[in-house]
């Protein structure tokens, strides 16, 4: 029963993340870099900071907790590497759309983010719980690969005009390369969470609810990601002469853009708030705990493709393509259930 509750909480957060790119369409008169920086301030600083403050035990300071175990800069460093993934992740949405872009990027992220921590711990992936973990990840990757194949079929069956109509800047080859890079570097988020384990343990020892104990670690990782993304976006503002985005729009447009950036940031952050809360219902050291990262990524792919269907990104793709897409989504659902069955 506890495991089901944990999965439901992670799924709710995943629905939020998968919806976080929808508000982009409501932002007016801003270049991509201006929007990305502004929503990042909410997603990677403000809301994670609020989450960390919620986890703060009475009488303690945030810096005191974050510096526990001397891992602060290591966690931030992983966050900076993840920031490259977050940056290219946004670009993959731009070139492939929500459905295909998230599927490829999150599939790669799922595999690396789940298996690398297990290998670093010295787990044997060919026996016992390690084998169950490997099977679950393999099923998830298979499902995501099939979804990627559906995306390739979609591309081959659509005219250039139809592609541009579904995704304005559609570019398959460029998008696939960027999405794979995004997936590999995005896996560093989970490595950062693993490196921050002493911080989480200290917070728990001080009496914080297990539901909130991961929040301070999440803040450190997202701060690292904010550094990387902010530097790139400010460079793009300078290169493209788009600093005027912040000064030439009306107060009404500012309010509109700020509101939707805040909404996008909140929805994006909900996935990791939900991950930390959901993990608290899993047995420490269990397969479900180790597999929780892959579960989150699989759910993100599942729900992002639901959004892709609702936003008509798959319109005109053909019946065969849709059947392949559905098959991939069903396999993702199986991958989530598999660790509990084995």
Please give a structural write-up.
The protein is mainly alpha-helical. The chain has one domain (2-341). It has helices at 2-19, 32-54, 62-66, 72-120, 128-157, 160-166, 172-186, 188-195, 197-205, 215-239, 251-279, 287-310, 319-341. The longest helix has 49 residues, at 72-120. The radius of gyration is 20 Å and the shape is globular. The mean pLDDT is 84.
Could you give a short description of this structure?
The protein has 342 residues and is mainly alpha-helical. It has one domain. Helix content is 77%, strand content 0%.
What keyword list fits this structure?
single chain, 342 residues, mainly alpha, 77% helix, globular
SSE layout and pairing:
Elements: H1 2-19, H2 32-54, H3 62-66, H4 72-120, H5 128-157, H6 160-166, H7 172-186, H8 188-195, H9 197-205, H10 215-239, H11 251-279, H12 287-310, H13 319-341
Assign a percent range to the helix content. over 70%
Mean pLDDT score: 84
Helix and strand pattern: HHHHHHHHHHHHH
- Tell me the number of strands: 0
Number of domains: 1
């Amino acid at each position: 029963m506890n495991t089901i509750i944990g999965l439901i909480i992670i799924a709710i957060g995943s629905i939020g993340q998968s919806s976080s790119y929808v508000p982009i369409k409501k932002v007016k008169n801003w270049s991509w870099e201006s929007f990305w920086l502004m929503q990042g301030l909410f997603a990677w600083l403000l809301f994670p900071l609020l989450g960390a403050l919620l986890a703060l035990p009475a009488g303690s300071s945030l810096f005191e907790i974050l510096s526990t175990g001397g891992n602060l800069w290591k966690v931030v460093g992983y966050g900076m590497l993840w920031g490259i993934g977050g940056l290219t992740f946004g670009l993959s949405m731009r070139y492939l759309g929500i459905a295909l872009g998230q599927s490829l990027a999150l599939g790669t992220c799922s595999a690396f983010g789940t298996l690398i921590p297990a290998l670093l711990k010295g787990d044997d992936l060919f026996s016992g719980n390690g084998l169950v973990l490997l099977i679950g990840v393999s099923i998830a990757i298979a499902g995501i690969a099939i979804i990627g194949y559906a995306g390739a079929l979609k591309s081959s069956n659509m005219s250039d005009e139809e592609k541009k109509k579904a995704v304005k800047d559609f570019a398959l080859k460029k998008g696939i390369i960027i999405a794979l890079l995004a997936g590999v570097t995005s896996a560093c988020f989970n490595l950062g969470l693993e490196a921050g384990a002493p911080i989480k343990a200290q917070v728990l020892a001080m009496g914080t609810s297990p539901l909130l104990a991961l929040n301070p670690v999440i803040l450190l990782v997202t701060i690292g990601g904010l550094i990387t993304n902010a530097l790139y976006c400010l460079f793009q503002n300078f290169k493209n002469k788009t600093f005027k985005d912040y000064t030439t729009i009306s107060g009404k447009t500012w309010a509109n853009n700020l509101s939707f950036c805040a909404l996008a940031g909140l929805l994006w952050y909900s996935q990791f708030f939900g991950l930390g809360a959901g993990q608290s219902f899993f047995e420490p050291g269990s397969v479900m705990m180790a597999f929780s990262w892959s579960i989150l990524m699989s759910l993100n792919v599942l729900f992002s493709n639901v959004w892709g269907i609702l936003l008509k990104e798959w319109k005109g793709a053909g019946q065969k393509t849709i059947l392949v897409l559905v098959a991939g989504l069903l396999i993702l659902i199986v991958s989530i259930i598999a660790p509990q069955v084995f």
